Amino acid sequence: MKIVTVVGARPQFIKASVVSAALQKNCTEVLVHTGQHYDHNMSDVFFEELGIPKPAYNLGVGSGSHGRQTGEMLMRIEDVLLKEKPDVLLVYGDTNSTLAGALAASKLHIPVAHVEAGLRSYNMRMPEEQNRVLTDHISTWLFCPTQTAAENLKKEGITKGVSISGDVMLDSVLHFLKVAQNNPEKTAIFDRLQIQPKKYRLATLHRAETTDGGLDAIIRIFNAFEKLPQLVVLPIHPRTRPLAEEAIAKCGFRNIKLIDPVGYLEMLLLTSNACQVMTDSGGLQKEAWFMEVPCITLRQETEWVETLNGNWNVLAKLTTEDIYEKAMHTVPEPAARGQMPFGDGKASEKIAAALLNG
Questions:
Q1: For residue 239, pLDDT beyond 60
Q2: Where are the alpha helices (DSSP H) in the chain?
Q3: How confident is the model at residue 330 (pLDDT cuts 50, 70, 90)?
Q4: Which residue, 46, 89, 153, 292, shows the most beta carbons closer than 10 Å to its own?
Q5: Judgement on whether residues 38 and 67 belong to the same structural domain of the protein
Q6: Cα 357 vs. chain centroid, distance in angstroms?
Q7: How confident is the model at residue 41 (pLDDT cuts 50, 70, 90)?
Q8: CB of 179 within 8 A of CB of 155?
Q9: Does the keyword 4Fe-4S apply (predicted)?
Q10: 159 and 198 share a domain?
Q11: Number of structural domains the chain divides into
Q12: How many Cβ atoms from other residues are within 10 Å of residue 256's Cβ?
């Protein structure tokens, strides 16, 4: 069996690292990188440290408006598919690369396999929500990370080809956190940043609705924490850095440590050793849950509703008052997490087996 896998963004590289390892045992995989994330710290470093084979194709699409970027990807992926003639097109998550790959394959009558199917925020203003809904409705295999995701699909009349595989990100965290903890080069990040475990908050910001509308309020809050730990470590996307620097300049730099994006292994270490995570990312709120780190999600909805149980993940409006209130009252003693809803850490093997068995 030949599988073409389309990736383009940081979270997809991580997911592909574990699934590709499972697929390579019994099939031919052709990896296509759209170039949606192209900065070294957002792309190349992940292939290097996660042991992902070099992509057979790098389409070099780069940034642009959603429509233009998706259209460029669609045309270039179609050319690859016409040349490679795969049995299956595999996509992950909810990026423009996901939708472009699925559309290109569907138009050529190539079956689509969607990993992380069934997630819903029910906010159709989010490009990610549009991408995941459209991809689900043209997929042949729909690999759901949770029971909730499968139920979401059923509500939309999608039942054929649906399976609950568990979450491949759990596979990845379980494997790579141990790798990171045993790598002195990676654990040196604490000395390099001059931070101590559990004495800092970790924050990430990248969604347009956050960086375009609420960044000033968030930065003011980051700078206003009065109780220890005061420091906020903020790895920042190249696109967002100028906006963050401007916001920091307005309120005065005191307790925000702005750093370049880090690789996946270092990010796992920073997350697992933070006293709290504050993020607008879908993936990081879940990784924090895996590692039992309280999280404030800087959005009014989440597709990972399972993380909200027991106060481990709390949603916050993009206002100074709400962020401060949630942040200062979430760190102490969340409730017991209860049953693991994200599978048994073997999702990658289940996905590979399902594809190989047709």
A1: yes
A2: 10-23, 44-50, 66-84, 96-107, 127-136, 147-155, 168-181, 184-187, 189-193, 208-211, 215-222, 241-251, 264-272, 282-290, 320-328, 347-356
A3: low
A4: 89
A5: yes
A6: 28
A7: very low
A8: no
A9: no
A10: no
A11: 2
A12: 20
55-97 pLDDT, tens digit per residue, is 999 998 877 788 999 999 999 999 999 999 999 999 999 999 9
Tokens encoding 185: 């080069």
Whole-angstrom distance, CA of residue 239 vs CA of residue 236: 8
Selecting among 37, 114, 206, 329, the annotated active-site residue is 206
Q: What percent of the chain shows pLDDT beyond 70? A: 93
Smallest CA-to-CA distance from 165 within 355, 346, 356, 347 is with: 347
CB-based contact 277:293 (threshold 8 Å): yes
Place of tokens 């850490």: 345
Q: Residue 248: give its domain's CATH number.
A: 3.40.50.2000
201 within a domain of the structure (yes/no)? yes
Q: What spatial distance separates the first Cα and last Cα of the chain, rounded to whole Å?
A: 10
Instruction: Looking at the structure, tell me whether residues 22 and 154 fall in a common domain.
Output: yes
156 & 215 share domain: no
Print the domain residue range for 66. 2-167+343-356
Q: Give the residue-averaged pLDDT of 28-47.
A: 74
Do 7 and 156 lie in one domain? The reply is yes
